[in-house]
Structures are given as C-alpha cells and as structure tokens.
Amino acid sequence: MLFSRVTTTPCNKSARQCGDCKRAFSSNTPRNVRLAAAGEDVAGRSDTPSASTSCFEFGRRHALAALVTVPAVLQANAALAVQGLTAGRIPGISTTADADGFYTYTRPEGKSGGHGVGWSEMPRYSFKVPAGWQETPVSIADLGGTEIDLRFACPEEGHLQVVVAPVLRFADVGYNADVRITDLNKPENIISGFAPELFGRPLNDEDVLEQRVLQKKDVPYYEWQVKPHNLVSATAVGNRVFIMNITPRSSRTWAKTSAALRRMQESFYVPSDYKKLT
Fold first, then answer.
1. What is the mean pLDDT of residues 110-129?
2. 278: which residues sit within 8 A by CB, 6+ positions away?
3. Using an 8 Å Cβ cutoff, are 133 and 152 in contact?
4. Would you say residue 75 has pLDDT above 70?
5. How many other CB atoms sit within 10 Å of the CB of residue 238?
6. Cβ–Cβ under 8 Å, residues 223 and 233
C-alpha cells in the first residue's frame, strides 16, 4: 500500500501571505489575522483591541447616539402634546350634575376654532344640558361653515349648535371693540340675518313665534322661538356675536322635552369680563 506524505508549510513570518495556501493577504485583511498567520500571540499583545475594549467602544457609540436621539424624541412628544391641547374636541362638560340633573358645559380655554385666526381671545361661553347630551364633531362642510364653534346632540331629544361670528358682519368696528347685540341691530334683523345658517332657509315674519330682549349681568340677550320649535339665544361680547340654536328631535318629542330645552336656552351665557378671567 502506498502512502503519500502530507506536509504543511509554516506561515510566512512577515504575514504577507498564508503559509498553507501561499495566497497573499489583501490590504483589507485585519491586522490580528496577519499576526495570527505569522504565529504571534494575538491575545497577549497589548496593542491589539480586546473583546472588552470593542464592547466598550460599541457601548460608548450607542450612548452618544442616545444622547442625541432622546432630546429629539422629547421635543416631538412635546409638540404632539401641544397639538393635542389645541386641535379637535376638548371635553368641557362638568363631571357632576346640579340639583335639577343638568350638566354645565364651559368652552375649554385651549379649544381651537376655524374662526379664531386674527381675533382676540375667545370668551368661555357656557350653558346647561340634561343627561344624555354629548358633544359631536363639527365639519367645515356644515351649513354654518367655519362659524359653527360647537355641536351637541341627544338621539332622543334633539341637537344644538353654537355659532360664533364676527361683529364686522353688522358694524365696522375696531379690532379691540367691545360691542353689545343691541348696538348691532334689532332682534328681527339679527335672526333674519343668521336664518340661512341656522335653519337653511330665509324667515318670514310669521315664522318667529316668540321674541324677547333680556339682561344677564348687564349684558343684553335676544331670544326667539322659530317655527316649528327652534329655540335661539344670541348676544354680543367683544368683537363677536354668539348664537345658540336648539332643535328638538321632532314635533312629537317637543311636548315632552320643551321644558328642558327652554332651560338650556335660558342658561346660555357669555362672560363680558373674560379678559379679566384669562
């Protein structure tokens, strides 16, 4: 039987080529590979990076990256928090009811509105609603457009809307004007001017069933009942006109809900000293 002798050639000490295959190392070959091929103790050399050193460098790079990333993340979260305060619906309803079972809605201080650009701060108007009434979305496609500031609804009783319009629709006043509704026009002219937005149609004289003028803390208000059973309350404070329109679900439910709906109409209030409260 013939045996062939297998011999190995030791690696070149200069570590320029592999001793087994005589293949030259490329210029990108790591230094520790060259040293190992030359037969030197790589682990014992102090000039060769150890595993712990590599881990340290890896950890340090990630720590530095984290220091750069964390402030950016925090800033983004802060921006989202601010956006959440000003956009969309912010709860303004009270958590507990009064002795008669009514809850109070007060316009939130951070609530935004499409009509707010270039205007002064918004008075935080308020009104009362029975249990079951909830805020609903407002769309610029609604009949009142961007002048609708709020909607509420109850499936069994009806719905309401609050329209906030500039006084400039009726009078040429300054930016910081503080106007009252009696300075703008008569009650019949105010309700006729807003009829298309509130009811989707112009009003005839016989459409207004009730009309009155009253004072709430020295601020005049107009109130109407419009056919068939719409209850409307309006006032002016600062450079805006505020109108709340309540529509019952149907004529059938009117007899049952009229007392509660009138209570809602009477409770509509816009503070005239809002600049002192904000």
1. 72
2. 109, 121, 124
3. yes
4. no
5. 21
6. yes
Closest by Cα among 194, 199, 171, 192 to 183: 171
* pLDDT value of residue 174: 75
Tell me which residue of 159, 144, 179 sits closest to 230, measured CA to CA: 159
Six-digit token string for 91: 């709860």
C-alpha distances out from residue 3 to 6, 8, 9, 162, 276, Å: 9, 16, 19, 104, 108
Averaged over 31-51, what is the pLDDT?
A: 54
More confident residue, 156 or 121: 156
